[in-house]
């Protein structure tokens, strides 16, 4: 299991010394896709969309993953 990463107040987290990535809430992802936040969490539970957990165990979504899904859509 990988160690938990610290999430900054601006919603970013560090995956290494030179990489910082924006984390989106279920509500933010829901607005992007036009669905309910509970739907986004169900997608994560079924593996349709990758997610990470914050130290407080809240589910968040990497902006790069969401962008890749948007670009892959027909």
Automatic annotation (TrEMBL):
SUPFAM superfamilies for the chain: Putative DNA-binding domain
UniProt feature, compositional bias: Polar residues: 64-74
Highest taxon, organism lineage: Bacteria
Segments for region (Disordered): 1-22, 54-74
Domain HTH merR-type: 23-74
Signal peptide: none
InterPro entries named among the record's database cross-references: BldC-like (IPR048048), DNA-bd_dom_put_sf (IPR009061), HTH_17 (IPR041657), MerR-type_HTH_dom (IPR000551)
Pfam families: HTH_17
NCBIfam families: HTH_BldC
Name the record gives this protein: BldC family transcriptional regulator
């Amino acid at each position: 299991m990988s160690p938990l990463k610290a999430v900054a107040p601006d919603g970013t987290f560090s995956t290494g010394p030179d990489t910082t990535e924006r984390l989106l809430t279920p509500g933010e992802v829901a607005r992007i896709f036009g669905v309910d936040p509970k739907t986004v969490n169900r997608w994560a539970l079924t593996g349709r969309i990758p997610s990470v957990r914050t130290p407080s165990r809240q589910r968040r979504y990497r902006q790069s993953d969401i962008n890749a899904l948007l670009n892959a859509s027909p």
